[in-house]
Amino acid sequence: MRYESKTRILNFPLISIAFGPDLEKNEHKGLAKGLVAIGDISLGVVSIGGIAFGGFSIGGVSLGAASIGGVAFGLYSLGGLAIGLLAAVGGAAIGYKAVGGLAIGIETMGDQQIDIIDFYRF
């Protein structure tokens, strides 16, 4: 399934949706690129997909300024494994501020905590 809106901003479609293979283009997965991108692999300001890259991203694997996903990387991350430069919340969370079952960071809260500052004092 493929859809791109006719409205374009900076030569990117406002909305792009791409799921599944496209045999005519020899694509095995849908690659959506737009301001709002939804697909197997998505790249956009708002990105939703199996693998999502963008300002705000939601996906199985997610990378963005604010990320939500099974594995999430970004400035602010929420996920099973969350790695956030500023803050991370998840089953395993790594970041300056980390909250999770396993929390690793400068300021931590969780069941198992590794405070990096205290770790290096030994």
* Mean pLDDT level: 92
H/E element order: EEEEEEH
Number of helices: 1
User: What is the strand tally?
Assistant: 6
The order of strands across the largest sheet is 1-4-6-5
Strand content: over 45%
Taking pLDDT < 50 over at least 5 consecutive residues as the criterion, the unreliable ranges are none
Structural class: mainly beta
The rounded Rg comes to 17 Å
Tell me the count of domains: 1
Q: Shape, please?
A: elongated
How would you characterize this protein structure?
This protein is mainly β. The chain has one domain (2-119). Helix content is 3%, strand content 77%. It is built from one helix and six strands; from the N terminus they run E-E-E-E-E-E-H. The protein has one helix spanning 116-119; strands at residues 2-4, 8-9, 12-13, 15-18, 31-33, 36-115. The strands form two sheets. The chain has a four-stranded mixed sheet with strand order 1-4-6-5. A hairpin with a 2-residue loop joins strand 2 (8-9) and strand 3 (12-13). The longest helix is centred in the C-terminal third of the chain and has 4 residues, at 116-119. It is elongated and about 55 Å long. The mean pLDDT is 92.
Structure summary:
3% of the residues lie in helices and 77% in strands. With 122 residues, the protein is mainly beta.
Fill in the keyword field for this structure.
1 helix; four-stranded mixed beta sheet; 77% strand; 122 residues; two-stranded antiparallel sheet; mainly beta; elongated
